[in-house]
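Before relying on records like the one below, remember that each one covers exactly one chain. Contacts with other chains, cofactors or solvent are not represented anywhere in the record.
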Amino acid sequence: MLFNSIPFLILFLFTYLLYWNIDDKYKKYVLAGSSFLFYLYYDVLATVHFFTVIAVNFYFSEKMFNAKQKGEDTGKLLQIILGLNLVNLAFFKYFYFLLDSFFSLTNSQMFKDLSSSVNIILPLAISFYTFQLIAIQVDIHRGRVLEKITFFDYTIFIIFFPQLIAGPIMRTSDFLPRLSKPVITSDSMKNGLFLLIIGLFKKVVIADNVGSLIAPVYMDPDKYHFVSIFIAFLGFATQVYSDFSGYTDMARGLALLLGFEIPENFTGPFYSASFSELWSRWHITLSTWLRDYLYIPLGGNAKGFHMSNVNMFITMVLGGLWHGANLAFILWGAYFGIILWIERIFFSKGYSLVPKNPILLFFKRMFVFVLFSLSAIFFRSGAYGTDSSAIMYKLASDFFGMNKGRGISGRDEVILYIFLALVLNFFQYNPQIVSRWKKYQNFLLPVASLLIFLLLGLFGDGGGDFIYFQF
């Protein structure tokens, strides 16, 4: 059930009207029921599996809480539940990848036969809810969650339908304090509606349209020249940003309309002047999760400069693997790990990563954006199964012969969509500019609503699947 679909619109309208017209003590039941229906719409067996995972995790959370109260060590309990969560994730998401890897290493037909004979359906949102569950367990072990959570609240926190499928990855402090007493004001309602509108604009107008225009380049790069392929890289970065940031905007908007404020995932990443800054602005809740629950446990910065870089590189590679079970995503993570390692070396030598000269700053931001866009070679291959080696070969072979092949169809439209994404990044990067328009929101909201309805009519029924739904 997509946010940009009629079934979801019906579900949310029914939920919203019922939710705000009943006593606070019953609101949890409405959230739980709507979230259950939302997931059940996807698959019955997956829903049974999902609630089983939640129940097992709750059992171990209770055991750890009880052990904490008695002053006992919770390390072994934590290891068991982390192991169960990771085995569950690995089975559903990495089963075929592991079998294919074993086949490549051993050439044993047994692995090939097993891979072709077993049909595993990936449960919806398994990567996101697994990370959220792991965060709860680790936070209980670390003493950051001080009060016991009821099973009902625990379940709602995990299945909360506005953010269930593709995040943001929440912590208990982001959600539970408001669960018993959700708050909505005139401002939060207007902010929620604006977020829904801008999210739909990013998804339907930018992401889906630029995606269809650049797809032929990736499917058959030999037909296109260097400039077309380069534009396709920038276009894919635009598509992923608009698609995922658009989803996050809609998730946050829906949450605000239900009285919750969930974390932002994007704060103008395309205006970053370094990759360390970019990863503090792109998929923020995943970046902070990887820092808190992987990089720091690996040793973080505690063991010196060299080991901190090794820990960072491992974190980026595993972050890439989290996105998908194939070599392309591992290379995608390694690509950024290498770039961040190089940046750290320059920074350790006393070089500033952010130029003070505005002209140099402009070109540094362009440089970071282009290098980020080049990662499409790996990310697109992992997400869509396109041949990354073919496009890399074509790009390299045409570097000194830019006129080989043809131009991209709809080039000016692609450039327009890239420009629109950069404008949106500019406003995210400079939220104080947006805040100055707040006094005009009573005028801007109906105008923006009318405009998005016209655009939805022009560009179709609300668009297709979100890219991050497959993760």
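The chain has a mean pLDDT of 88.
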